[in-house]
Structure formats: C-alpha cells, structure tokens
Amino acid sequence: MDRRSMLRITAGAPAFTLSAQQPPVPPPGWWLREPLRWVQTNVREVDAGLDARALVAEAARLGANVLHFNMGGIAATYPSKVAFHLEGRYLKGRDLFGEVLTEAHARKIRVVGRFDFSKTRPEVFAAHPEWFFRKADGEPVIYNELHSVCINGGWYREHVMTILTEALERYPVDGLFFNMFGNQSSDYSGNFVGHCHCDECRRLYRERFRRDLPSKMDDEYRAWLREQSLEVAARIGDLIHRKRPEAGYFNYLLEHTDGVMSESNTAVGRPLPMWPYSASDNVNRARNSQPGKASVNLCMQFVDYAWRYATVPPHEIRLRLWQNIAHGGALAFAINGTFEQQDRQALTAARPVFAWAAAQERYLAAAKSAARVLLLQGGPGNSYRGLFRLLTEAHIPFAVSNNLDWLGRREVDLVVTAGRAPKELGPWMEQGGRLLAASPQSPAFSDVQVTETLPEVKGYIRVRERAALPSLAQVDLLLLNGPFAATTENGDAELMLIPPSMFGPPEYIHADLRETRTPALLWLHDRRAAWLPWDLGEHYYRLSLPAHAALVGDLCRRLLPAGPQLETNAHPLVEFSLLEQPGRLLLHLVNVTGHSQTGYYPAHQQRDIDIALRVPVRSAQALHWGRRLPVRREGGISRLRLPLLGEHELIVLE
C-alpha cells in the first residue's frame, strides 16, 4: 500500500478540512515514541522492607517497560532532607526509591515516581495549620489520621516545589505522577466534606469576586477552584521540565501534562448496566481529543476501595488491556502493594497480554486512529454511550473527541454528535462536511425552527419511506420515550412523530393512535446533515432495540460519501479499531462476547470473519493466528477472511 493511499483510507472520498496555522510541535517525549507497558505498584508504608531487586525482576518478568512506583508526599520512600516531607515510618533511613530506580534502569525499565500531596501527617498540621483544608465549621478534614491540605495554602504553593526540586535533582526519574491532585470534596469513604474555608481560600476568593465564599459550591466557585489547581499544576510542570527535560508529567488533569491519565475501575455502588467499553472509551477519547499526549488508562485490579485485595474477573482485566492497546494507548495495569498479591487472578490474567505486547511492540508504538468517522462527545452521558455502542456494534471505525481541535487538522468524512451539534461546525459543514445529529436540540449552526420541545413523549416514530431505510423493512413504528423537538410540518419526511395514545386495557390499545406530519428526521445542508430531533443514543443505551440500531446504520451508509471504511459479518460484540503507522494500517479486533450483565467470562471464539476494507491492501498478517491472510481485490475494496478470533487479533495491513 502506498503512503498516499493509506492516508486517504476511503478511495475517492472527498476531504473536508479548514485551513489553520499550526504552532511548532516539539519533539515527542518517550511516552509518545515508545510502546508503553506500564505497571503501577501502590506499595504501602509497611512494604518498606521489600526486596527492590526482586520487585523489579517481577516487573521485568511481567514484561513491563515502565514502573510506576511510590516516591513521596504522604510517605516518602527515600530519606528526604526537606522539612515536613516525612519518610515512611518503617523506612528507617533506607533509600527504597533509589534502589528501585537503579534496578529498573539497569533492566531498561523507565520509572515514574508517584507523589500524593493531598494529605499529610498530624505533626505537619501542628506546625503549619494554615496549609490545611478547613470545613465550613473551621475543622480540618482527617481520614485515618491524615490531614487534607488545601491547594491554595503554602504546602502546595511553596513547600511542594521544594520537595520536588530535591527529588528531581537527586534522582534521574523518567516521569512524575500526582495522585488526588487538588482539593477533594469527599473522602475515601464517600463522606462529603464540602469545599475549603481556610483563610487563604477566603482571601483569594474575596480578592477575585469582592464577596465571601459561597455556602455551597456553585459553578462559579468550581471554575475558580479549577483555575487555582491549574496554576499549581502549571508551576509543577514547568519545574519538572526545567529540572528533567526528558521526564514526563502525569496526573488526572488534561492541562500542562504530558499524558491523559484515566482508569477503568469498578465500584460496588455504581449504577448498572456495566460499561464494557470503559477502556476503549477512555483511550479512544484521549488519543483523539489530545493527540499530543500519551493515553495511560490504568486497568485497576480491585473491586472497590473497601476491598483492595479482591480482584475483578480475570476476563474483565484482559478485555480492558486489549482495548487499551487496540486504540493506541499504553498497556497499563495497576495493583495494590507488591507483586505478592492476596488474590493473584488479575496478575495471572495480565501476564499473557503483556507478553504478547512485548513480542509485538513494533506494532504498538506511535499508532494513531485512521478512522474517518468522528464521534463528538457532548450532552448526557447515556446519549454518548448509546452512540458509542451503536457505532461499535455496527463495525464503523470511529475516533472520539471531546473538543473541536481536530478541525483543520484531520480529514473526517462524517461527524456524529452526542448532544447538540455546536455552532463551530458551521464552517466545516459549509465546506462539504457531513453530520448525523441525534438530540432534541437543533444543530446550533442551522436555521431550522423548533416550534415546541415536548418533554416526555411516550409515543412512536412512523417509518414512511421504506425504500430510503431498507434495514427497517419489517418495522412500521419505532419506540419513542423522551423529549422530542417539534418543527414545522412536512409531509415528505421519511420519519414522522406519533404522539402518545391509549395503551390499556388491551381492548383499547392504541385505538386512538394519531398520525402527524411532524418530522422525526430532518435533512439539512443539501442533505449532508441528518438531524433526529430526539435522543436516539439514550434510547439505545437503555433498551438496545435493533430497530434503533438499524436506523443509525442506514443513515451512516447514506451519509458516508464512498461507503463505510469497513464491512464485516462479525458478531456485533466484536469491536474493530483501525489505526495507522507509517507505511501500514493496523486492524484490531477485540472480542467482547464474554461480557454478560455483571459478569465477564471467556470470549466465545468467532470463526470465518469476512472483512471488506475500502483501501488498497497488498498483504495481511494476523499476529495471533500467526499466518498471512489471502487478500482479494475487487475494485477499490480489499477482502480477507480471519479463520479464528479468540480474545483479540491484530491484522497488519500493508
């Protein structure tokens, strides 16, 4: 495949981009150049006597090339000379971090030091009470003896910089990570503590707004507190990059950092249904919303805070890990304590994935999305997740972005919006862009008039133009349950609103059903934009009705100018991801068929998966299968068959 053809992906498809002057891009750090097999070990104070050589040897045996290891904050793992940076009480002067760093670097494993500055011990509070978080009643926030500090106090603003200066000058770390950055409004047990009322918060807020702190957090306060956190984050980032120019900076903020940190985790009280695409969602969104940053989505091994030693199902661990790499992120895994686990199932599950990734690392470095459909995140979370599932189950490769920075930077054939389509898409639409919007809010750049927004419609959508929607051949009515935006009547619309009617007793079922001329599908911008004035994504997330899926499939096929990038007979729960490296495409298949309700089981093997790609391909190598796949060319379409799919496959296309 030649480079030009590979980048075009869909042969003959028009490209719609906006011109934009790009700032100079600095050379990428190691976190973008190298394939990352990242392991976090959250060691405890009582682990101070661990064998550093044995721990690093276990990380190497797993196949890790990045070790994320405790360095300081709550408990320093080295003998710090900075006042109030207290070493772990069992350390007894030992330089545990230095030993681990030396052993890791000897094995060519990078080390990211972990700090948690959110809390510290009572003796620091006694010496500097002005550094600490105060509740509305003036009392400190204390959890397991540790006192919470405030982002606006001298601890974060000044003393942390002294601690980090010592650490960066003493140790050639490859990066630093910061946990629980900034002020937390609840503790580990979920107890709400509100917002800080310390003297410094009161002073800064009054200087900014000329009034006292609000009694309850509001949007203005949250925005201000975020600004305060970002000020500190920027100073920390600047310090790291000045002291260690090759070191990365990581925390859970997007701004000023070198990576987008996220987690695929579990909690016993989390609302159902479970989200089996957690890792795919986090990594896809991170890589395409912030392409200049690494995506490190930590696969958390434990069930919930109260049960740190109980692991989630092994097949859930493996699914998350395969999804991480399928979307171009780090293979990232976190454990509590050392490799001597009380429940070893998660670690055992992760080993073969790390081994495979180490063997195939050349195909995992610096890969980026080649998808030409973009899902724009916005609006309610269930709407977004419903559209995410719809595109995934329809086997439409897509990139996710939570911003519009991609405008003028990448070629996109179709944008799908969760929530209102923003007005900034207007110029892109004028230049030929294509859009699928599903929201009771009209596209912000369109002049379509909404006459009324009906809040909760328990009705139907009438299918009127069956030839235009061939996948709905057996469907006359689609379920509608939620808000609906009514517009001017149009007798030519392909879909029409059917308002609520009687549903009981059985003798009266829909006897009063009334047809309308109110469109439930509007074509805009010379039929390059399809607007469904109701929340189809939320419907699918809750109900998974095949008629709703069929509608989206038909609309996508009509909106894609040269047809979909990929067509297949694969099971809907086989997830496809299309990435690119220089000179080749990488087609990942992740088998999600092992997920059922709250359980994760072995994926059901899939056989004879036919794949048609709208791209010229000379050769295809299936890495798990271990063989080349015959490729048949038919016009601009390349066809191949994968004989067997287990949990995951990577097909290298050249």
Describe this structure in words.
With 654 residues, the protein is of the alpha/beta class. Among the domains are: 373-564, Rossmann fold; 567-653, Golgi alpha-mannosidase II (Immunoglobulin-like), CATH 2.60.40.1180. 26% of the residues lie in helices and 25% in strands. It has 15 helices and 32 strands. The strands form seven sheets. It has an eight-stranded parallel beta sheet with strand order 8-7-3-2-1-11-10-9. Strands 12-23-24-32-28-29 form a six-stranded antiparallel beta sheet. It has a six-stranded mixed beta sheet with strand order 14-13-15-16-21-20. The longest helix is centred in the middle third of the chain and has 25 residues, at 219-243. The model is unreliable at 1-22 (pLDDT under 50).
